[in-house]
Amino acid sequence: MSQSESISLCLQAHKICRSIGAREIISDVSLNINKQEIFGFLGPSGSGKTTLIKILAGIDKATSGEITLLGTALPHLSMMKKIGYMAQSDALYHDLTAKENLDFFGSLFGLKGQHFMRRQREVLELVGLESHAKKMVQAYSGGMKRRLSLAIALIHEPEVLILDEPTVGIDPSLRLMIWNELYRLCRSGVTILLTTHVMDEAEKCHRLGMILDGRLIATGTPEELKQTARGTTMEEAFLYYGGIRK
Ligand SMILES: Nc1ncnc2c1ncn2[C@@H]1O[C@H](COP(=O)(O)OP(=O)(O)OP(=O)(O)O)[C@@H](O)[C@H]1O
Prior knowledge:
Elements: H1 3-7, E1 9-20, E2 23-34, E3 38-42, H2 49-56, E4 64-69, E5 72-73, E6 83-86, H3 98-108, H4 113-126, H5 142-154, E7 160-164, H6 172-187, E8 191-196, H7 199-202, E9 207-212, E10 215-220, H8 222-228, H9 234-241
Parallel strand pairs: 3-8, 3-9, 6-7, 7-8
Antiparallel strand pairs: 1-2, 1-4, 4-5, 9-10
Residues 20, 25, 43, 45-51, 88, 197 line the site of adenosine-5'-triphosphate (ATP).
Protein name: ABC transporter ATP-binding protein
GO molecular function: ATP binding; ATP hydrolysis activity
Keywords: ATP-binding, Nucleotide-binding
C-alpha cells in the first residue's frame, strides 16, 4: 500500500475471526474504511454485525486477525478518546438524569468547564432532548434512551463514531435530523461506522459491507452493489450476494 493510501485510511481489518466456544461468529473479515466515510454494515438479525463492530471499536477482541485504527493497532487504550461508541442495548444510568449521565460519561474523557457545558447543550439539542435534560432516564421512552446514548457517544467529539443501529425506535423527522448531523460530522472530518438491518437506511451510507453468517459477502457503494446484482433495490442486491437470487 502506498503512503498516501495509508494516510487516507481510517481503519484496516485483516482476516478477523471471532469464535465463542466451538462456534465461529465472525469468519475471515478483511476490509479498509476510508477517513470521512460513512460505512454501514448491513445484515439480518444474528448475522454478526454487533460482534464485528465491537471488535472494530476495540471493545471486544478478535480470536485472530489484526485491526489498525488511525495507524494504531487495536486494542489500545489511547484510542478510546478517539472513538465514540453507541451500543445497541443502552448503557445508561437509569437512576440519574440525562444531564447527570452526560456529566459522568464526559468526565471519563476528562471534559470539564465551559467547553463541557457548551458541548452538553449542543449534543442534547442535536438529539432533541434539551427540554428533558433534568428528567430521570428511567422515565424516558425507548427512543429517548437511544437519543441520549447517541448524545453520549458524541460528547467528546470523537474522530471515529461507531454506532450500533443508531436510529432504531426514533421517529422519521428526528431520524432525518440525525442523518443530517452524521453527514455534517463526516464533512468536518469524522469517520462513521454503523450497523443497520434497514435497507433504506443502508442506502444513505457512502459504502456498505453486507454481512451474512459472520462473513463479509460484498462491499461497495449502494449503487455499485445494486448494479452488480442487476437489482433495483438493496433487498434484491442482498439476496443476490447471499446466493438466494441469481
Ligand atoms: N456472548 C455470546 N455468546 C454466544 N453467542 C453469541 C454471543 N454474542 C453473540 N452471539 C451469537 O453470535 C451471532 C451474531 O450475533 P450479533 O449480535 O453479532 O448479530 P447481529 O447481526 O448484530 O444481530 P442483531 O441485528 O439482531 O443485533 C448470533 O447468532 C448470536 O446469537
